Amino acid sequence: MKFTPYDREWMIDAKCRGTHDPTLYESDNRGDGQREAAIALCGDCPAFVECARYALSTESPRGMIWASVPVPEMPDSAGYREAIRVLEIIASLPTRDEI
User: Fold this and answer.
1) Most buried among 1, 10, 21, 57, using CB within 10 Å?
2) Residue 4 falls inside a structural domain
3) Where does the 4Fe-4S Wbl-type domain lie (predicted)?
């Protein structure tokens, strides 16, 4: 499934919807448990796969956490490439509606 910038229906079901804690969605790479908090929040989110797909469809997923994956700001870094690789793996999974 390819998203356009206006395909945001999946966000209605996202567990982070309405969350006003920026540490849960802004990737600052401080290593202060942010990844663990994202995994705890995103792990059983009904919009997990759609989140990864949407991240990959955006012009720049940098500096945000998508589907529990913190994406570094630096697109030329190994960490950025690894984050994109993980998002691609998640995005290849079937959604709950596709099973």
Assistant:
1) 10
2) no
3) 15-76
63 conformational bin, left if phi > 0, alpha if psi -120 to 50, beta if neither: left
Question: Does 3 map to a domain?
Answer: no
Kindly give, in sequence order, each residue whose CB lies less than 8 Å from that of residue 10, ignoring residues fewer than 6 positions away: 47, 50, 51, 54
Structure tokens at 73: 């700001």
Quote the CA–CA distance of 85 and 24 in Å, as a whole number: 21
Q: Is the separation of the CB atoms in 64 and 71 below 8 Å? A: yes
pTM: 0.83
In total, how many domains does the chain have?
1
Please provide the DSSP assignment of 23-87 as one string: GGTB-----SSHHHHHHHHHTT-TTHHHHHHHHHHSS--TTBEETTEE--S-TTSHHHHHHHHHH
Domain that holds residue 51: 9-91
